[in-house]
Design a protein that fits this description.
The complex is a heterodimer of chains A (334) and B (390). With 334 residues, chain A is α/β, with parallel strands linked by helices. Chain A has 12 helices and 14 strands. Chain B is built from 15 helices and 7 strands. The chains are: A alpha/beta (334), B alpha/beta (390). The structure holds thiamine diphosphate.
């Protein structure tokens, strides 16, 4: 066996590589969106694809999100596997009509005769100092729509593996890319890039006994930092990375919560009507008798995403997470 | 020949009240962009107007340079420059009366400044201290719109409402060439034409939507041609010719005010700088193209016209330059002050009346800020900023 050097790579590089490998493996895979060709995308995630595969396979479309996703539907109906890029979270909204009225329910309404293997890549979330409309966490809208897979990687290896699986999926996948992790680096072995479970499996990133933090995407590094800081308090926090919001991995999450008896859900989307509400409800339904405190949520405030100079007050940080953990302890004693 | 005139065509009786427009010719744009500067038409232009445009263009150019410099100093998060497009921006704003409304896109800071809004307030969105820094009613300017073309239906609605109320108010809506591909653009055009709303659409065709050239955006002969399909006149104008832009837009505004309905104006111009300071334009275009457009510079075109006609001399040019420097110095000085951030504002305008949940979250943030203040010996916002995105 030859050993291959495991080198640091960025999440953006892993995503590019995933599309490249998918395009090389299957001529039906087409990448399309605004500025994805010559420019390689505003985040350079599609860099080099047009050069390698030609403009018919990696296409700069007219500037119209409804048109991009709508034409992708027709392309998928004819046997292609479109990978669509929405430039930013808030610019995907014009495509919601297509996503919700057609993409998500085409398999169901045609009794399985018309599956749509479309991947919709959406850079999402804040923390990069973006001006208005460049930092939304829109996952709850997608989660609320049956028929869509909703996936969000937090590591370089997951970015590659999950995107390959999304493209290979015969169902539409909304692939949420935490844009503030695009340039984060992990050691990654591109020779064995697929060491990732199929879509729908959560993973325990850190073991602990005091309480379980349940998180995903951009909040994973924050939770890991909080878990590290918690050691000073004598707490050992377990951290679960969901990776897939739909389907939801009840098994892994509930096993983790049962081990500790306490859970905090952490995400930067707004709390009210946000993903954490669903997650907390599921945990309560399944683990009520194992819980020693209510499931708490640490989320963004229930406000439109703030301007960049104020975003740090909105985003869940280490202190807010530790405060929640402290409240779990108190609830248990009280 | 229309469908109804064809032999054997179905003829409902009684005949429909609606008749298709038989002759699109009056709606069609000119084959070439309309020009004034350097042509005979320039002789008819009002010298005072030309001088006013010149002073403002020089200012606009300087504003773009200053704002771009502020991005390098980290004082502005991002700035989409309009260098090369100053004529469109300024002539458009000057074609409006005070009671009219402007609906700008995120790039149109210069038009908003020319409308009288404080430059520092205009930059709020791009600096990042708030999403919109000015009172839309004070100067009748809608907030800068970041999602493309989404402000266009608003302009139609406002113009329509004004007419319903009996006010002779016109709305001017600005959009880029890329924005014309969005569904909202088409819906706005159609509503405007069906309602005969007093609205003027100005497309600044600056050649690119980020990296995508116009040829990949549309197959239409020109963007102005799109008007015909909706039943409104399309006009094509040289966007670097301030006098021409002013004349064409003034005509369109007058036409709308008189009840003539909407007009679509395409101003052909060029984006000299990159899309924003964050963009690398060398990836999608060569220097030669940019240089060719520099030779057709809006400020130079107007300066040449004014000097050849003896309306401007060296000291006039110097005065305009000085005026621009003063504006830039003021902008620099005020933008170099830290904006006053009020984190509690986050909760203040989500609803007309706050909710119990928001009051709870407000109390949480207040407690956090107080704790922070104690830790950092009273430096509140500044000391805390080092904490990064938490
Ligand atoms: C609905 C929507 N989609 C995508 C974007 C991202 N975006 C910002 S500017 C831009 C290009 C705009 O080009 P154009 O309309 O020609 O205006 P210009 O920037 O040239 O003034 C894009 C794609 C956006 N702001 N809104």
């Amino acid at each position: 066996m030859t050993t291959v050097a495991v080198k640091p790579a960025t999440m953006a590089q892993a995503l590019t590589r995933a599309m490249r490998d998918a395009m090389a493996a299957d001529p039906a895979v087409h990448v399309m969106g605004e500025d994805v060709g010559t420019l390689g995308g505003v985040f350079r995630v599609t860099d080099g694809l047009a050069k390698e595969f030609g403009e018919d396979r990696c296409t700069d479309t007219p500037l119209a999100e409804a048109g991009i996703l709508g034409t992708a539907v027709g392309m998928a109906m004819y046997g292609l596997r479109p990978v669509v890029e929405m430039q930013f979270d808030a610019f995907a909204y014009p495509a919601f009509e297509q996503l919700i009225s057609h993409v998500s329910r085409m398999r169901n309404r045609t009794r399985g005769r018309l599956p749509l293997p479309i991947t919709v890549r959406v850079p999402y979330g804040g923390g990069i100092g973006g001006v208005e409309h460049h930092s939304d966490s829109s996952e709850a809208y997608y989660m609320a729509t049956p028929g869509l897979h909703v996936v969000t990687p937090a590591t370089v290896a997951d970015a590659y593996g999950l995107l390959r699986r999304a493209i290979a999926s015969d169902d539409p996948v909304v692939f949420l890319e935490p844009k503030r992790l695009y340039w984060s680096k992990d050691a990654w072995n591109p020779e064995h890039p697929m060491d990732v479970e199929p879509i729908g499996r959560a993973v325990v990133r850190r073991a602990g006994r005091t309480a379980t933090l349940i998180t995903y995407g951009p909040s994973l590094p924050v939770c890991l930092e909080a878990a590290e800081a918690a050691r000073a308090e004598g707490w050992e926090l377990e951290v679960v990375d969901l990776r897939s919001l739909v389907p939801f991995d009840d098994e892994t999450v509930c096993a983790a919560v049962r081990r500790t008896g306490r859970a905090v859900v952490v995400h930067e989307a707004t709390g009210f009507g946000g993903p954490g509400g669903e997650i907390a409800a599921r945990i309560t339904e399944r683990c009520f008798h194992h819980l020693e405190a209510p499931v708490l949520r640490v989320a963004g405030f229930d406000i439109p995403y703030p301007p960049p100079m104020l975003e740090r007050h909105h985003l869940p940080g280490v202190d807010r997470i530790l405060d929640a953990v402290a409240r779990l302890q108190w609830e248990a004693e009280g | 020949m229309t469908v109804l005139e064809q032999r054997g065509a179905y003829r409902p009786s009684p005949p429909p009240a609606w008749q298709p427009r038989m002759d699109p010719a009056p709606l069609l744009p000119d084959a070439e962009p309309y020009r004034v500067l350097g042509t005979e038409a320039a002789g008819k232009a009002d010298p005072d107007l030309l001088r006013r445009l010149y002073t403002q263009l020089v200012r606009g150019r300087r504003y773009n340079a200053q704002a771009t410099a502020l991005t390098k100093q980290g004082r502005l998060a991002v700035y989409p420059s309009t260098t090369g497009q100053e004529a469109c921006e300024i002539a458009a704003a000057l074609a409006l009366e005070e009671r009219d409304w402007l609906f700008p896109s995120y790039r149109d800071t210069l038009a908003v400044v020319a409308r009288g809004v404080d430059p520092v307030e205009v930059l709020s969105l791009l600096r990042g201290d708030w999403h919109n820094g000015y009172d839309p009613h004070a100067h009748r300017v809608a907030p800068l719109s970041t999602p493309l073309a989404t402000q266009l239906p608003h302009a139609v609605g406002l113009a329509h409402a004004a007419r319903l109320k009996g006010d002779d108010v016109v709305a001017l809506a600005m959009v880029g060439d890329g924005g014309t591909s969005e569904g909202d653009f088409h819906e706005a055009m159609n509503f405007a034409a069906v309602w005969q709303a007093p609205v003027v659409f100005l497309v600044q065709n600056n050649g690119f939507a980020i990296s995508v050239p116009l040829a990949k955006q549309t197959a239409a002969p020109s963007l102005a041609h799109k008007a015909v399909g909706y039943g409104m006149p399309g006009r094509l104008v040289d966007g670097n010719d301030a006098a021409a832009v002013h004349e064409v837009l003034s005509d369109a505004v007058r036409h709308a005010r008189a009840g003539g309905g909407p007009t679509l104006v395409e101003a052909v111009t060029y984006r000299i700088d990159a899309h924003t300071n964050a963009d690398d334009a060398t990836r999608y275009r060569g220097d030669a193209e940019v240089e060719a457009w520099r030779a057709h510079d809006p400020v130079q075109l107007l300066e040449r016209e004014l000097t050849t006609r003896g309306l401007l001399d060296g000291s006039g040019i110097e005065t305009a330059r000085q005026d621009a420097e003063t504006m830039a110095a003021d902008l620099r000085e005020r933008m170099n002050r830290d904006p006053e951030l009020q984190p509690m504002d986050l909760f203040d305008h989500v609803y007309a009346e706050s909710t119990a949940q928001l009051r709870e979250q407000r109390a949480l943030l207040r407690a956090e800020l107080e704790a922070e203040q104690e830790q950092h010996g009273g430096h509140g916002e500044h000391g805390a900023r080092e904490g990064g995105a938490r």
